[in-house]
UniProtKB/TrEMBL annotation:
Residues 1-28 form the signal peptide. Keywords: Signal. One of its GO terms (biological process) is transmembrane transport. PANTHER family: OUTER MEMBRANE PROTEIN W, PTHR36920. InterPro entries: OMP/PagP_B-barrel, OMPW. This is OmpW family protein. Belongs to the OmpW/AlkL family. GO terms for cellular component: outer membrane.
Length: 232
């Protein structure tokens, strides 16, 4: 009798265990399958605008040469200056850009050589907008060196005579060469260093002591600048 009860008890325990396991399996089957957490969406970095501006302090260093047609030993020199400059760039590709350079300055014109005794001949303001086509190198990390070449149209205005009672320097076209680099602090802001050479030879007329003269002012200035770059 005792053995029968023992067997019955074991049978009940085994049956209960099977029922519990079956119930747990059924409940597990009813639960939705576990899913991996969805990856956090990362916003794409917006493409940079093709537009860029720079503001520079610019040193204008002239070549100090010129000639007066009627006086073979005459020469000319010009004052140097430091001015602010704004330029606007447009990137056609990562490597190719066009840059328009804007700034204005003045130049005092002095007689040299056989007319050195005349001293200051006069003064003119100079507006030399320059358009260059540039190639930008993109393989140097934060450093973005570039080279460029283009055309310059120089306008002379607000001209006043000194030793010359009248001074008229003619507007003229010229070529421009350029080399520089940006050091980009981030995607938008950077520091810039730039050197340009303008090939600028302008005809002029002047009246000195009642006599009319003509000649050529060979300024050929170096433009050396440093400033801040902002890429939109």
């Amino acid at each position: 009798m005792t053995r029968v009860r023992t067997i019955s008890t074991r049978s009940l325990v085994a049956t209960a265990t099977l029922l519990l396991l079956s119930s747990a399996a059924a409940m597990a089957a009813d639960l939705p399958a576990a899913q991996e957490p969805a990856p956090v969406a990362v916003e794409d970095v917006a493409a940079l605008s093709p537009w860029q501006v720079r503001v520079r302090g610019l040193g204008v260093i002239t070549n100090d040469k010129g000639s007066v047609d009627q006086i073979g030993g005459a020469d000319l020199s010009y004052s140097d200056s430091v001015i602010p400059e704004l330029d606007i760039s447009y990137y056609f590709t990562d490597n190719i850009a066009a840059e328009l350079i804007l700034g204005t300055t003045y130049a005092n014109v002095y007689g040299e050589g056989d007319i050195a005794g005349l001293g200051k001949l006069g003064k003119t303001w100079v507006l030399p907008p320059t358009l260059t086509l540039q190639y930008h190198f993109t393989d140097f990390g934060a450093f973005k060196p570039y080279v460029g070449a283009g055309i310059n149209y120089t306008m002379f205005y607000s001209q006043k005579g000194a030793a010359a009672s009248d001074l008229d320097v003619k507007n003229t076209f010229g070529a421009a060469l350029q080399v520089g680099t940006d050091y980009m602090i981030n995607d938008h802001w950077g520091l810039n260093f730039d050197v340009k050479k303008l090939f600028l030879k302008a005809d002029f007329d002047a009246t000195i002591v009642g006599t009319d003269y003509s000649g050529k002012a060979k300024l050929d200035p170096w433009l050396i600048g440093a400033g801040v770059t902002y890429r939109f």
